[in-house]
Design a protein that fits this description.
The chain has helices at residues 34-47, 69-73, 87-93, 110-123, 138-144, 152-172, 229-238, 249-265, 287-300, 303-314, 337-344, 352-361, 372-386, 401-416, 430-433; strands spanning 5-11, 51-55, 98-104, 128-133, 179-182, 187-189, 197-200, 205-208, 221-224, 241-244, 274-283, 366-370, 390-394. By secondary structure, it is α/β, with parallel strands linked by helices. Helix 6 (152-172) runs parallel beside helix 7 (229-238) and helix 8 (249-265) packs parallel to helix 13 (372-386). The two termini are 34 Å apart. The chain binds flavin mononucleotide (FMN).
């Protein structure tokens, strides 16, 4: 049996998706403490998880120019801190754990982005990953940043070049062995092995030296989550791991076939791409107890809160629409075409009301509820059926309790089934942990 890759989906906000801040297992009193995150990282590393993922956005839910009251009263994607500043601390606490941070190609600049990730590759000893995102709302680009908002496909054209330039800085600026540190020879760095970059593109250019020596991975492991055709082509060209939001096995299979075909079209082995789906696991010693906990969780998430969160992710205010309206009649937004698309193929989801209910209970991927064995078997069976490589676990009530339960109850079952290794080697880089050879990626898009 192949190994399931396992990560955890986090976000530096008071609750993660479902607004659970008042629940005893919420984390609203701890999410702003570094110690909470270093503790979580250590727990995951000790259990052998492959990575901790931080989603990020400068924005917040806004509907028709107004911030809905629930955003602040219920802490929906608000407030929020910068996860990149946590990475070094988390990595010190969890030296074997991959840490994946999100950074935007529409809002940042390639040169400082390359510098940050090269630094983090060194500081994490080869455990850093970059979740490349292009999406943002005009509220963020034009409002918060005061820059021009490019449309969806053009953002990906810009992103292709952004990543090309970063890769050039990481891969071409320094030869192996350039860091000599030879006191006798009075040579710290060998100048003949450090090269000027001369990059001139349509959107970006850079001439000169890149000051950061290569870390163990050189290029961070590149993650992406395109759902549109253009987004998936970008991922197929650049990424080593892509996220899908599996709603059911059939839909996940359709997504994985589509992405792997695009990977092949980009001249790569279609299985040189790790496909990972979000999953919310609610597990308890018995199936009944697990289902009771799951009902408790769903009751915490009102339709109104779900609508605000949905608007935050997609820019679409479903609350302002007739609940009986059919989804094909809802106009997408530039930010949010694909989030609605993903419901178009789910049976039983036909109206605005159905989308909200589906989103409320199945916000970000598979929902798996049951006894330890039931959960483990469903995870393995779903991955095999839909040809995906693993999962990113979502928290349930907010704090790290869901992961601890998973570690105590489900992991031993997965190990028993041969779907997770008994021991993990902390010296492996994130790229190796995902089953790729050491060092930089083998492919270099043309
Ligand atoms: C698991 C997952 C995590 C994501 N994380 C972020 C994020 O942190 N920030 C962000 O702006 N978008 C995030 N996205 C959105 C994607 O980057 C992408 O824009 C979205 O899936 C729509 O695809 P498209 O850009 O091809 O239309 C995430 C999507 C998924 C499925």
């Amino acid at each position: 049996m192949t190994t399931l890759r396992l990560g955890v989906f986090e976000i530096l906000t008071p609750s993660n998706g479902v607004p659970t801040w008042r629940h005893p297992a919420g984390r609203a009193y701890r999410y702003d403490q570094v110690s909470y995150w270093t503790g979580l990282a250590r727990t995951l590393d000790d259990a052998g998880f492959d990575f901790l993922f931080f989603a990020d956005s400068y924005g917040y839910p806004i509907v028709d120019g107004v911030v809905p009251e629930e955003v602040m009263t219920h802490g929906i994607l608000f407030p929020g801190y910068d996860p990149m500043l946590l990475v070094s601390a988390a990595s010190q606490a969890a030296p074997g754990l991959g840490i994946v941070v999100t950074s935007s190609t529409s809002l940042e600049q390639p040169f400082p982005t390359a510098r940050r990730f090269a630094t983090l590759d060194q500081f994490t000893n080869g455990h850093i990953g970059w979740n490349i995102v292009t999406g943002s709302t005009a509220q963020v680009t034009e409002g918060l940043f005061g820059i021009t908002h490019a449309d969806h496909d053009r953002r990906y054209d810009i992103a292709d070049e952004f990543v090309d330039l970063c890769r050039t800085l990481w891969e071409d600026g320094w030869d192996d062995g350039a860091v000599v540190r030879d006191r006798e020879a009075d040579m710290l760095i060998d100048p003949s092995r450090v090269h000027e970059i001369a990059y001139r593109g349509t959107h970006f250019s850079s001439h000169g030296l890149f000051k950061v020596p290569p870390g163990p991975q050189r290029t961070p492991v590149l993650f992406q989550a395109g759902a549109s055709g253009r987004g998936r082509d970008f991922g197929a060209r650049n990424a080593e791991a892509m996220f899908i939001q599996g709603q059911n096995k059939e839909q996940a299979l359709t997504a994985s076939r589509d992405i792997r075909a695009r990977v092949a079209a980009a001249g790569r082995d279609p299985h040189d791409m790790r496909l990972l789906s979000g999953v919310t696991v609610t597990v308890a010693p018995t199936s009944e107890e697990a289902h009771r906990k799951r009902r408790e969780l769903e009751e915490l998430f009102s339709m109104d809160d779900a609508a605000v969160l949905f608007a935050g992710f997609t820019g679409i205010d479903l609350r302002g629409l007739d609940p009986a309206m059919r989804i094909e009649d809802v106009a997408g937004t530039d930010q949010g075409r694909t989030p609605l698309d993903r419901y178009r193929t789910v049976s039983g989801v036909e109206t605005v009301r159905d989308v909200l209910e589906a989103f409320r209970v199945q916000e970000r991927g598979f929902v798996v509820t049951g006894s330890p064995r039931e959960v483990a078997e469903e995870l393995v069976e779903t991955a095999e059926f839909s040809d995906i490589d693993g999962y990113m676990l979502e928290p349930t009530f907010g704090d790290d309790g869901a992961y601890r339960e998973f570690i105590d109850l489900v992991l031993p079952e997965l190990v028993r089934m041969g779907a997770r290794p008994r021991e993990t080697d902390r010296a492996l880089t994130l790229r190796e942990r995902l089953g790729f050879p050491a060092g930089a990626p083998r492919f270099r898009p043309s």
